[in-house]
Records
---
Amino acid sequence: MLEIAICDDEKQLRTCLGKILEQELDLNGYDHRITEYASGEELIRSLPVRQHDIYFLDIEMAELDGVATAKEIRRKDTLSEIIFVTSYPDFVFQGYEVQALNYILKPYKKEKILEVLHTALTRMGKLKEDVFMLEQRGSSCRIVLDKVLYFFSERHCVTVVTTDETRSFPGKLTEVEEGLPEYFIRIHNRYLVNLKHVEAVSGSAVILSDQNQLPVSRSCKQELAIAFARRMLG
C-alpha cells in the first residue's frame, strides 16, 4: 500500500490537496492511504508507529515548521520522498538539506501536483505501466504496451508484435483500438502502430525501431503525419 502524509495547519488546504491526490490515485488503481496531520509535532509523534512513502509538508507552520519537520523525518527515514508546500518560492532552497524532491506553490495548481506526484512515483519505482490484457484459451497474459511495436489483423485474428515476442488471438482490430492509449494510431485498416517505435514516415510506409516497414494507407496519411510531427516536437 502506498502511504502518503499531508502535513499542513490549514484544514481546507489539506482537504483540497488530499482530494486531488485521491482522485488521481483512484483513477490509476493505486492501493493507497492518505493521512492528514495538522502540525509537524503531530506528524513526528506518529513516526515510531507510522512511516510514509511520500510527505507533503507545509513550510510555514507554527512552532515546528516544514523544514524542521523534514529534518526529523530524515533522522528516521532516508528513503521517502519529501515535497514542500509553500506560498513563498524563496523557502524552497532549504529543501536541499533534507533531499526534498520538489515543491508546490500555494494556491494549488492541479497540474503541478500531479506532475510532482508522478515524479515521486517514478523515483520510487511505483509508476504503473500501461498494459494490454490478452485473454487466450481461458488464461490471461499481461503485455506492456510500451514494448508493443504494432497490432496487425487478418480475417478474425489479431496479432500483437512486441520487442520480445509475437502473439495472436481471436478478435477485431477495432475492438483492440478502443482501449489503447493515444500514442497508438491506425495507419492502415489492418495495422495499429505504436508511435513510440516509429523512427520515420517515408512515402507510403512507416519505419519502426526494429527497421521493419509497415504500409500506410492513403486515408491514414494525414492523421499519421500530424501525430508523428507532434511526437517529434515533444
---
Amino acid sequence: MYLGIDTSNYTTSCALFDGETVIQKKRMLTVREGERGLRQSEALFQHTVNMPALLSELPEAEITAVGVSTRPRSVEGSYMPCFLAGKNSAVAAAYSAGAALYETSHQTGHIIAALWSAKRLDLIHEKHIAFHLSGGTTEALLVTPDKENVIDAEIVSSSLDLKAGQAIDRTGVMLGLRFPCGKELDSLSLNSEAEYKYKPSMKESDCSLSGVENKARKMLENNESAGDIAKFVLTCVAETVCAMLEGIIKEYGSLPVIFSGGVSSNTLLRNKVKSKFNAYFAEPDFSLDNAAGCAIYAYLKENEV
C-alpha cells in the first residue's frame, strides 16, 4: 500500500492506494462564520489536531512508500507553513514503517489525482494542459513528463488579480453563505433562470476577475436575488476559463486538457467547457483538495511507471 498525505490551506487529508483503488479520509478546516479564510498558524494547528484521527480511520496496511505534498507548487520559493503538518506526519509514518518517502507539491498531487480519476493517468507520459482552479489558484499549466518529478508544470495562463475561487467565496460570504462557498453557490445558481452574457477581461491568455466581485456587490445592493447573483458570478468564471483555453489552444495547439481544483466541480463551468472543448474533469472528490494524488505519486515513483 502507498500512503498519501496532504495538508492544504482548507483540508486535512490522507489516502491509501494499492495500485488500483483509493481509500481516503478528509476533514475540512473550520472557518468562523462570516470569515473568508484562515491564518496560516490556525491552519497549521488544525491540521496537527486532525491528522492523527484521520490516519486512524484508514485500514491497517503494510506501507511500501509515503507521498506527501510539502509546498504549493514545484518551483523554487514555493512555501506555505500549513504543509509542515503533513510533512511531519509523513516523515513519522515513513520512519515507523521503514518505507520510502517521496515529497511533491500540492499542485502536482492535484494533477495526478485528476488524471487518475478521469482514467487518463497515461497522460503523465504526454504533453497536456492542466487547469487548476481553486481559492488560491487560477492557472492553466503546460504539463510535460519529468523523470525526477513524474511531471513538470509550467504556467501558460493565469489570473492577473482575483482568483476564480476567491470571486466565488467572496460572493458567497456577501450572500451569507458559509466559507468555502462553492457548493452552496453552485446550488443557488441552479435555481436561477436568468441568462447572462459576459465578455471576459483578457490580456492575451491571462485574465482579470476583479470586476466580477464588484458587479456582484452592486447586484446585491440592488436587491437582486441570491440565485441570480450566483448565476452571474459562475457564468463569468465559466466564460473566462473558456477564453483562457481558447488562447492556449491558439498558441499550443489542441492538446488533451484536464481540470482539477474545487472550482472545477461547478456544474455551470463543467457544462460550458464540455460543450465547447474535448476536456476531462476529475470526479468531484478528486477535484477538491485530496491526498490521493500524493499516494499515487508515491506509487509512480516506487514503480517507475
---
Amino acid sequence: MYTTHDRVSYSRIDVNRKIGVESIINAMQDCALFHSEDIGRGAATLAKVNRAWLVSAWHVVFVRRPDMGEYFDVHTWAYKFTGIFGCRNFLMETPEHETLAYADSRWFYFDSATGKPTKIDKEEIEGYGTEEPYDMDYSSRKVTMPEGLKKVDEIYVNASLLDSNKHMNNGQYVRKAVAYLPIDFEPAEFRAEYRNAAHYEDTMQVCTGMSDGRLYVAFTDDRMEPYFISEFTPV
C-alpha cells in the first residue's frame, strides 16, 4: 500500500465548501503517480522505453466529501495484473480512519511507439506487487451510453487540457463533466469509461441526460462515437 497525506485547499472546494468531485479523482490519480515515481517506474522512466499507463475506467464511491481545511490520506495499491490490464484500488480517509471515499480503477499498458496496448512488462508487476482487493461492489467497468442524450455544448481540446502523453488528461475529462452537473447535485457514486483519447484541436460534443435515476455526461465526436462516458448516481 502506498499513501499520500493531503489537505482540502480553497482552490479545490465547491460552492458548499466541500472538496470537488474532480479534486477527489485528481488526488487519487496523483497518489497513483507518486507511487509510480517512488518505486522508480514513473512516467519519464517509462517514456524512455516507449511505455505508459493509461486509465480506462473508474468506479468511485463517495461516503463523505471533506470540508475546506480538513486533512485526509489517500491509500492505493494494485490488486491484479492480467494481460494488458492493471487493476488498482484507492481509499481516501481522515487521519482518524473515517472512510471518505473508495474506488476501483482499471489501467492499460501502452506502447507509445506503436500506439497500441501491449503486454505488461514483468518489471512493472514486480515493482508494484499485489494486495487483496478492497471490499466493494466490482460492477462492470463498461459504462453504457443511454439513448436519447441531448447535445448541450462543445469542448475544444486546447493545449491546457493535454498531459505529457499529448492526450487530454484523465482528470480533465472528469473536471469538464462535473461542470454539467446541477449546482445542488450530490453524488453517491461515479463511474466512467475512457473509450478514445482526445487530442489537440479535437472538438468534442457534450451530451447529457438522465436514465434510471442516474445522470450521464458523455463526450463524443461528431458521429456520436464516445471519447468518454460518465455516470453519476445521486445520494
